[in-house]
Specification:
- The protein is an alpha+beta fold and about 190 residues long.
- The chain folds into two domains: about 90 residues, Vaccinia Virus protein VP39 (Rossmann fold, 3-Layer(aba) Sandwich), CATH 3.40.50.150; about 80 residues, Orthogonal Bundle (Helicase, Ruva Protein, domain 3).
- About 40% of the residues lie in helices and about 15% in strands.
- Strands 1-2-4-3 form a four-stranded mixed β-sheet.
- It starts with 7 loop residues before the first strand and ends in an 8-residue tail after the last helix.
- About 25% of the residues are buried.
């Protein structure tokens, strides 16, 4: 029986222009990591640690908080570097504790749902989701999930997004069961 490798800690200073790509890759391989401590551009640190309803809350926030507990540790001024960059930096700690099971969501489907929900930040959640879901299904589902159609994705917590996602998935399953032809042995 093969033993799982010990989870390691990652410490790094990410190139600011590819921070999101690297973070997404680290989350993809999260089973190998226990904690990730990174220096990133201050604005990225603010987005990672943002709360719902704030201007910094978005897809990167939701993704980071889906896979980890995010903590902004401290800021690093440009004068700390030689030559000094034109931006401020910050150090964040990400303790890997994925919440997929707790939220009761399928990872790939929920990530696609989050990407669609945050696709156009200035649009309402309803307008972003209507690209994929029928208007009448979406309206009823949002009502059952107690979410106003006029709300934007950044106003909802991860738990609220998961509740809406689960409602939509259960509605989709019910519709599929009603519309798919039954196999001969069930007839």
């Amino acid at each position: 029986m093969e033993q799982a490798p010990d989870r390691v800690r990652v410490v790094g200073n990410l190139p600011y222009f590819i921070t999101s790509d690297i973070l997404l890759r680290l989350f993809e391989y999260r089973k190998y990591f226990e904690t990730i401590v990174l220096m990133v551009q201050k604005e990225v640190a603010d987005r990672l640690a943002a709360h719902p309803g704030t201007k910094d809350y978005g897809l990167l926030t939701a993704t980071a908080q889906l896979y980890s507990r995010v903590e902004k540790l401290f800021e690093v001024p440009p004068a700390s570097f030689s030559p000094p960059p034109k931006v401020h930096s910050a150090v964040v700690r990400l303790v890997l504790v994925p919440r997929l099971e707790k939220l009761g969501v399928n990872e790939a489907e929920f990530m696609n749902f989050l990407k669609l929900s945050f696709a156009q930040k200035r649009k309402t959640l309803w307008n972003n989701l209507k690209v994929r879901y029928a208007s009448e299904d979406l309206t009823g589902t949002m009502k059952r999930a107690r979410i106003q159609p006029s709300i934007r994705a950044e106003a909802l917590s991860l738990e609220q997004m998961a509740a809406l996602f689960r409602e939509l998935m259960s509605r989709e399953l019910t519709l599929r069961e009603l519309t798919e032809p039954r196999s001969p042995r069930h007839a």
